[in-house]
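step: validate -> pass
step: tokenize input -> pass
step: predict -> running
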Amino acid sequence: MKKRTKVVGITGGIGAGKSLVGKIFQTLGVPLYSADTAAKQVMRNNTDLKEAIKKQFGKDAYHNSGEVNAKYIAEIVFQDKTKLDLINALVHPVVAKDFSQWTQKNMHHKYIIKESALLLQTEEYKFLDCILYISAPKQVRIERIQKRDPQRTMEEITSIINSQITEQKAITKATHLILNDDKTMLLPQIIAIHNQFTASICSI
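step: predict -> pass
step: emit ->
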């Protein structure tokens, strides 16, 4: 009997290094689905979703070019949790459908990865076989964000961090921990986990 493809989640707070870890897994031949990238794509290309967002957030949610006005939306949602919940409620079902279709195309692999910042803040993680949580000290994360997104104010960064699940709570839900603190070597941690996933069954 053919074994089912395992679905592994990668998550972590902003600035923890989710994308970097995901890219390393990709170089090892593991298919990776970025929920954050997919969300941007469906917000730009899905007509029904665009209309729903404009209805709830106003026409300024999109530039004249049709591109998402991410700065405008971010300023709203990170100051008002009800608005954050609203945008998530609009976008997540569309992304979930897209992910389901992507998964079907990659079922010949031993395991596949879904990278998502909100993995542990929804019930979604309960349907995955493993959860990798990327851990990094808060100050290290802040410095990375400032370097990557110099346009963000300290107030903005703090607001985003405070809106996300705490590391203490996240670790209790994760099955595996990867430390990305700029001191501990990252690659050996990832290779060890990759070898484990390809050799045995991972389950929560």
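step: describe -> The first strand starts at residue 6 and ends at 11.
step: cleanup -> pass
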